[in-house]
């Protein structure tokens, strides 16, 4: 017999940041929810706000959670069951794993099932899972699932679930399509917003740079050099542009990785790990391929191609400026597209500083400022350094040593 554990969506996904929910717990406990948040900037994590797990174990039923973005193999370990303890058994379902293995795991029972919409529908149609006794359904990133064409799958899944279930939706935005879905499949839903519109992306500095088409790539390179971010994310609209920019930045000496739809799950995992451990500092990605990534040290987002709409701009930019950290979102705008960029910014209720891209002189000046502020200049000599430093000082003037240090620092940039 399968027992139910009612839990809530985003906490199952990597990188969730706790956020206070401005609704009393009793109200949330009694109602269905549409949680609207700037999910990329401050994902909702209402762990414990709904139900204490100890109160649920032992009740009969199942719960199904399904995420819109791909589930990363590196996050879940072996296929199918990812965690088992005294309280909770979780199963992840996704394309690319063995559907027969997943079916066997479902047959053994679980408290929580996390799945992409298409995979869950496959299991329902195969008879691997029966939703008649589920107690709750959580839709994470509901707006993106609709944008990606999963409406039919979602409606099928929700129609298979009992009317007595609880339905919780998490969405970065609540456009008309989400409101319509909520109206059809939720009852008396409470809408929860994690922060006010006037504070949205308050930790992100927006900069827009109008350039001639022939100068766009050099402008992007200068922006990367000017900020020298620990991690930078460059958005392109097509896979071909991602591959082109990857080659271009590699040739200029940047440590760079790319994310596009042609990568296998293993390649994607390795690329993101390279960003996290410092082997790469720049990631170039399409919007679809960048869904769900979490880079704690992301300080800079560059829009090499304009986003298609305000929501996409917010999704992209919100990947920086998280957890109280500051971030920069820079738009590289073709002169002919300036009015479109201004319109997108206006509809997104964002103010961007319009300026020319950093010049070579400005980049060099920032390099000099970083050198002067580097704590390495004030660190004491190590025992293994003293003898060689004495030789350098004996054979060269201070000006010669400083010039050599500067040249070495600039080498390859």
Explain this structure:
By secondary structure, the chain is of the alpha/beta class. The protein has 16 helices and 15 strands. It has helices spanning 25-30, 53-56, 73-76, 99-108, 117-126, 142-147, 151-160, 176-185, 216-227, 239-251, 265-276, 310-317, 338-347, 360-373, 386-395, 398-410, and strands spanning 33-36, 62-67, 81-84, 89-93, 112-115, 134-140, 166-171, 190-193, 204-211, 231-235, 256-259, 282-285, 298-303, 327-334, 353-354. Strands 3-4-5-2-6-7-1-8 form an 8-stranded mixed beta sheet. The chain has a 7-stranded parallel beta sheet with strand order 11-12-10-13-14-9-15, sandwiched between helices.
Quick description:
The chain is α/β, with parallel strands linked by helices and 413 residues long.
Annotation keywords:
single chain; 413 residues; alpha/beta; 8-stranded mixed beta sheet; 7-stranded parallel beta sheet; 16 helices
Largest sheet: 8 strands, mixed
Outline, from the CA principal axes?
elongated
> What structural class do helix, strand and pairing data support?
alpha/beta
Q: What is the overall pLDDT average?
A: 75
Strand order within the widest beta sheet:
3-4-5-2-6-7-1-8
Low-pLDDT residue spans: 1-31, 36-86
The N- and C-terminal alpha carbons lie at a distance of 63 Å
Proportion of residues in extended strands? 15-25%
| Rg (CA only) | 25 Å
Number of strands: 15
- Summed up, the helix count is 16
Percentage of residues in helical conformation:
25-40%
